[in-house]
Amino acid sequence: MTTDLDLDADTIAGLRTRADEVLRALVGSPDAQLRPDQWVAIEALVAHRRRALVVQRTGWGKSAVYFVATALLRERGAGPTVLVSPLLSLMRNQVAAARRAGIRAETIHSANLPEWDAVHQRVRDGEVDVLLVSPERLNNPGFRDEVLPSLARDAGLVVVDEAHCVSDWGHDFRPDYRRIATLLAELPAGTPVLATTATANERVTADVAAQLDPAGDQDVLVLRGTLERDSLRLSVHPVPDTATAMAWLVANVPRLTGSGIVYTLTVAAAEQVAEHLRGAGLEVAAYTGRTEPAEREALEQDLLDNRVKALVATSALGMGFDKPDLGFVVHVGAPASPIAYYQQVGRAGRATDRADVVLLPGPEDRAIWEWFASMSFPAADQVRATLDVLAAAGAPMSLPALETAVDLRRGRLEMMLKVLDVDGAVHRVRGGWESTGQPWVYDEERYARLDAARRAEQEAMLEYIATRGCRMAFLRTALDDPQLAADPSWRCGTCDRCLAASGAASDGVDDALVAAARERLHRPGVEVTARRQWPSGMATMGVPLTGRLPADELAATGRAVARSDGLGLGGVLRTLFGGTQANDGPVPPALRDAVLAALDSWDVTADGVVWVRSVTRPQLVEHLAGAVARHRHLPLVGTLGPVGEAPPDRHDVNSAQRLAGVHRRLALELSESALAGLAGRSVLLVDDRTDSGWTLTVAARLLRRAGAAQVYPFVLATG
Question: CA of 405: how far to CAs of 93, 312, 422, 431, 434, in Å?
């Protein structure tokens, strides 16, 4: 497509010369030259004002495309580039790179709120060349209604980085990214748009391209390159258990060249692996979604400067982290798709001849995948219930208020609302969310296809683990690498399969290391912190609880034997609680020594034991309470239990719903003599597990109000 904005051939030739000059300043090399496809993209944006999607491997130079294009457009009088970027680490790297080339870059994200007004003013004054915006800002009411329209009107270029997040077919779909459609719709004619990603198969590529051109009249340029990475040495070492994986890390991470990343599937696993490696003398740190922003920045810099051997991370450290000499990536547990796996391992070996990429798949991976899958878009009845509540409210409702009326946890509820917002059924305003009154249809067929696609990706990941063929060829096939189709017999020649390596995880792992890892993993005892604040809006549910709990109604800090989402004993606990009534019975033998060890390591004094009478596992809890009482030489005082024939509480609802159910059901079941003797005494409160914490909180409150001086919760599992 050509437009009246197109430039003549001589002008384009001059742009090419200037583009290489900007690139040299950007990368700090006097000999740097643009790749052919980089220039094709830049020419499309600057000379022809087109919309383009660039799908190229990590390290190819996608950021160079938009920074060089920005410099050329600004020199021709265009407005600032608006760059939607998903992660703070990506923003920090991009700002630093831009400033090296004399490009003035600023950011707006959740961690720099005090700077927003000053940044907005600098944009208005023409002092900003690139404004990096986090996707969640696009749906902030103030930003969306007051700032975004002017940005859309004045932008010289719009860039959507990590564009696979736009597509719900992608491995890392983010609802906030869907708001980009609003931004694109408000752009004046002739505003160039660039979307970039390293991880998109044909279906995701087509979906993103379609979203860049909703009217079908933009002639989107799609540039896809090879995904081959000849520096990566791929290998897979299946492990029989977590202890063997830990021992492998202790034995092999010190031998790996440079510094790197050890990925885990859960926050609990990242924290445990990091603790274990530090205990073995390795300089490592955990990096997860729970890590504070300032600490994340410091940890990233530690890795960049090689002050740590590795960061033990969840997917929170992924897209955009830029360390060209990253020496290795090891996964403890397999991601749920080859595409997600390729995205994470792509961080390594960008500026080195060799980077080791090792996968240690474990027997618990599939269960973890299923748990994450359970957090996908809610069922139709839950969506309609939320829409009905908002429609009846007559005023905006905050998330805490909505939680009291619908049975969804906050994270899942917020994700659903963002999707409904893009679909036009709800609107985010100051004060919360409101119904638009627009009809909305649950696309059950689409969600079924998405679920089927997710399960197919899981099976593909299992095939990658088991394949006898070239591993890099497998990954390139999974991502529909266009150049592999032209050479289907291609092999990397460097992975464990190409080199006919055995792949046995026990190779080089000393039995003593495995034993030490197993002992540490099975070392029992996890703190259980008491709840101190009731959720807001409980009065609307008929529950008269508000504000902070008084000190004389609080539970003390308790103890769990282990985390159910952790490693080691966590696997035993997931098996125990993975079923229903069939799992009831005495405490499993595999947990009995751990129960006693957790009690022995817990320095508290009590006068008796009370347990929560369970509907689903009555034998388990009673047996546990009896074991605690015998080991501590304490009397069994009595129970708390559900009133009447109420069914067991659901565990898949939000915090307010959980509290309401517990408050209505739970009551003291102590004899008159036990109640009379409770005053001034300390109690061990026994239950099978805790997740929301409300059962223990309400039970402790009942005991404290009945006269107990202190209540110490003790459970098998937390998390």
Answer: 42, 39, 22, 17, 14
